[in-house]
Amino acid sequence: MDNILAADIGGTTCKLGLFSDDVELLHKWEIPTETLPDGGRILEDIYEAFIKETANHGLDLTDIAGVGLGVPGPVDFKNGIINGAINLNWDGKKPISYEFEKMSGIPTIVDNDANVAALGEQHKGAGSGYDDVVMVTLGTGVGGGIVVNGLLAHGHGGAAGEIGHLNVDTKRRFQCNCGKKGCLETVASATGIVNLARHHFHNGVETTLSKALEEGTVTSAAVVEAAKVGDTLGMRVLDEVAGFIGLALSDISVLTNPNYFIIGGGVSRAGDILMDGIRKHYRRLTFPPAYENTEIVFAELGNDAGIYGAARLVKQFLT
Amino acid sequence: MDNILAADIGGTTCKLGLFSDDVELLHKWEIPTETLPDGGRILEDIYEAFIKETANHGLDLTDIAGVGLGVPGPVDFKNGIINGAINLNWDGKKPISYEFEKMSGIPTIVDNDANVAALGEQHKGAGSGYDDVVMVTLGTGVGGGIVVNGLLAHGHGGAAGEIGHLNVDTKRRFQCNCGKKGCLETVASATGIVNLARHHFHNGVETTLSKALEEGTVTSAAVVEAAKVGDTLGMRVLDEVAGFIGLALSDISVLTNPNYFIIGGGVSRAGDILMDGIRKHYRRLTFPPAYENTEIVFAELGNDAGIYGAARLVKQFLT
């Protein structure tokens, strides 16, 4: 038997999965993430949960070919080291693969959470089985993962897939967390939607959201809802967001020419109003041979994408 | 013995190479490309040249592990099919790998010429041995190749590496051959330099090149030379070109985070005045974790890059 264990470690919960040798999900469950005082128990809690659940399935750890971990921070993939994870209270460099292997005796592989989600969607979700797939996650920020020839791109410093920092807003209106202006994240995340709504409100665009905008309480979800019922400002913001995402996908298309772009994250719940706009702008902006037969679709695996991708990494590199 | 043969097929000459098993160049030579009437003799000429030269080295074709071909047109890499090559008078789809294998009895692999040049520079040239390398070729147009995890990106339609069609000129001033406006190729190729020179001349920027600009005879080389001796228009054009290239490299950095960007092609002969500008703008525009330890350098292999890359493909896929 060559089962696979996977964990997608988040700031609140760890999603855990037991997989078959060919990355079919046999069982999934969650445990709380104990981030206090310094996240020092997290790996041990996962290890204990693995022991218990494999036993429930009549397995022990000698039946496990490998463990895959997704973590919320920058990862040195080759060496299995995470360089800080604010949401876990992990400070500085931590050799996660080494620590988990030492504790469990099982070969362990670790990658960034956005990367494993992309690999999960590529392997078993919306891009299933295609070699070239790019995932864009629109949440509080914008993240992503790029799969080329069936393998995640990491790059030499692990900064591959940082789609949120593509230069798209050439007016460079809003400050990004990275220190620059003009990043995709400043105009296409939940924060970006609020940035754009405020910007157009201050420029006098009509809206039913005036009160929330004046009070500084407007949310990206409210802007999306307003757009859906024809609010002028909401519609303008959503079209602009779609335009920036379409531009980003256009540029990615001539670089790695993926079969599938997979859009996930909270902002993607805007649904068709966003997707129709992205497809329209993408088509308008893209080098024709690069958009032929390229599909832009929503993510399918939801919160399970990370464990699927982490399990797939085990399959690719440890078996 | 497992020698490798490679050909980089151009519109005027075919560069040929005999390599050792570990992609060391043993001998290189050229033959003319017979493009008339329909380029129908090209593969046979290469085959005959291979037979003759391997014999001169005391080898016969049974000593050859594989043949790698670089061709000037869009390639379906998996199936070894080229879809037209204007400079060779090749029309429609041609199953090059199949045809060459049938003639020679030797396993054959084929890729686009810009891709094999990038792989050559990655493997034996300016990026030698690093897994993540991107080459940008600034010639009449702008081409390139993207190496991720040591493998060329092709994408599902073979449009990966079409760096010349990144959206960079948001003013979208000049028409591209692809039908769009705003592509990198319209502002960073030899043609692009002339586009920008004309544009600024019509907008009244001072220059010593007035006569050539009025007569429509200005060349990109003349603009570069003028910039080097302090011509206002020339310097403005070169800084703008460098800015657009810097922007393109910045966006590529957050997608595949290469160790090395390798700049080749005729326009790269502008030298330091171009390179200094590219590095300055790149640094200004790029997400800091993505530019750390990333080098931007000139290509090293010149016309040999293609045969090195074609030989490397044989090593990767046929041995």
Description:
Two copies of one chain form a homodimer. The first copy, chain A, is α/β, with parallel strands linked by helices. Chain A has two domains: 3-120 and 303-317, ATPase, nucleotide binding domain (Nucleotidyltransferase, domain 5); 130-300, ATPase, nucleotide binding domain (Nucleotidyltransferase, domain 5), CATH 3.30.420. Chain A is built from eleven helices and 13 strands. Chain A has helices at residues 42-56, 96-104, 113-124, 185-188, 190-202, 210-215, 220-228, 232-256, 272-285, 288-291, 305-317; strands spanning 3-9, 13-19, 25-32, 64-71, 75-76, 81-85, 90-94, 108-112, 133-138, 142-148, 151-152, 260-264, 295-298. In chain A, the strands form three sheets. In chain A, strands 3-2-1-4-8 form a five-stranded mixed beta sheet, with helices on both faces. In chain A, a hairpin with a 3-residue loop joins β1 (3-9) and β2 (13-19). The longest helix of chain A is centred in the C-terminal third of the chain and has 25 residues, at 232-256. The model of chain A has no long low-confidence stretch (mean pLDDT 96). At the A-B interface, α8 and α10 of A face α8 and α10 of B. Chains A, B: Belongs to the ROK (NagC/XylR) family. Chains A, B: Keywords: ATP-binding, Kinase, Nucleotide-binding, Transferase.
